[in-house]
Specification:
4-stranded antiparallel beta sheet; about 350 residues; alpha+beta; Alpha-Beta Plaits; nucleic acid binding; RBD_domain_sf
Length: about 350
């Protein structure tokens, strides 16, 4: 919806940016992208020009251009945007300064069917990057970890230190698997409250469908431990399309053999490389044995007609099948299979770490 601004690393946060704006309806162009491109060409010749973007405020929509120097922004405001017309930029308060960004949060996991107006309604904010009017509101909102709006749980992080906040909040997580198709956080709201989870993230398998699992985040290990000792129920109406799932559920932290376990996940890179190389050597050895067996048998049949030296085709197939079974065991040992998200087995839903 907007022209991508420069990355945070490319913009000097200590530099005060001056923002100028104009209403989209005053700029010619068939699409929003055309209007942004038109403004970019107009402003490109003015020194200290940074970038152009679209902003959807609660009360109005604007196209803005940002400048690193105040006097150059004033110069841009005196430049007509329409040939022979009376359309000019006006100065507005910038939200890209370091002070403003310290009051800014980033919202993740926004559903594609939510509009900016929906987000504004949910957060009393402007867009997915929200700058609050005062620090008290920022501190209050930043402590929530997530916002539940309509059917969705949207995670929130501070603008500065997003990666560190995400890592800290992912320390104590657990996963519920084998959920009904396209379940939403709204469907699991009673479970979220019951287990005192801070967030409920349901990943997508494509642009329109959600996976059959939900990832819960907790404040600490004690909260997660208490959650695993509780029982809960899924409503029958969630079992859409004739699905039948056990109604009684128990949250537990487990490591199913078909999943990559935490111990596997925490292996160092060198350990993983060693395991992978060992598995590859076994695979190569088994393949070589299979080729040698087939080659030797063929030569024996062609050279010597003695029945004692000739292997039947059934014996050859039996040897090959044994080799394949050995290779399959090696694969299961070193590279565990990932369970299919489309499984319809009526297995109990459990919370996994």
């Amino acid at each position: 919806m907007e022209e991508a601004p420069q990355s945070q690393e490319m913009i000097d946060m200590d530099e005060e940016l001056t923002k100028i704006a104009v209403a989209p309806g005053k700029i010619s162009g068939a699409t929003l992208a055309d209007k942004l491109q038109y403004i970019k060409k107009k402003m490109a010749k003015i020194p200290s020009y940074k970038y152009t973007r679209y902003e959807n405020h609660t009360e109005e929509e604007i196209l803005v251009a940002l400048f690193g120097k105040y006097d150059k922004a004033e110069q841009a405001c005196t430049t007509s945007l329409v040939e022979g017309g009376n359309t000019f930029f006006r100065k507005v308060q910038a939200t890209d300064t370091k002070e403003a960004l310290s009051r800014t949060i980033c919202i993740w996991d926004i559903s594609t069917d939510l509009t900016k107006k929906d987000i504004a309604t949910a957060n009393s904010c402007l867009s997915s990057t929200v700058t609050l009017h005062n620090m008290d509101d920022y501190q209050e909102l930043n402590q929530k970890w997530s916002i539940l709006y309509k059917n969705y749980h949207m995670r929130i992080f501070p603008y500065f230190g997003t990666r560190e906040a995400k890592e800290n909040r992912n320390k104590y997580t657990a996963t519920i698997a084998n959920l009904p198709e396209n379940i939403t956080a709204k469907d699991l709201e009673h479970i979220i409250k019951q287990v005192n989870a801070q967030t409920c993230y349901i990943p997508k398998k494509d642009n329109s469908n959600y996976k059959r699992l939900a990832i819960f985040s907790f404040h600490n290990q004690e909260d997660r431990k208490q959650a695993t000792n509780q029982n809960f129920q899924l409503s029958k109406k969630l079992c859409r399309g004739g699905q039948t799932l056990p109604q009684n559920k128990q949250l537990c932290i487990r490591q199913p053999p078909t999943n990559i376990t935490n111990a596997k996940r925490n292996l160092s890179r060198n350990q993983r490389d060693t395991q992978r190389n060992t598995a590859n050597r076994h695979f190569d050895k088994m393949e070589q044995m299979k080729e040698n067996s087939q080659s030797t048998t063929t030569k024996t049949i062609n050279i010597d007609n003695n029945s004692d030296l000739i292997e039947t085709q059934a014996q050859i197939n039996q040897k090959i099948n044994k080799m394949d079974e050995t290779m399959e065991k090696l694969i299961n040992t070193f590279i565990p299979d990932t369970p299919s998200t489309n499984s319809t087995h009526n297995t109990p839903t459990t919370l996994t770490q």
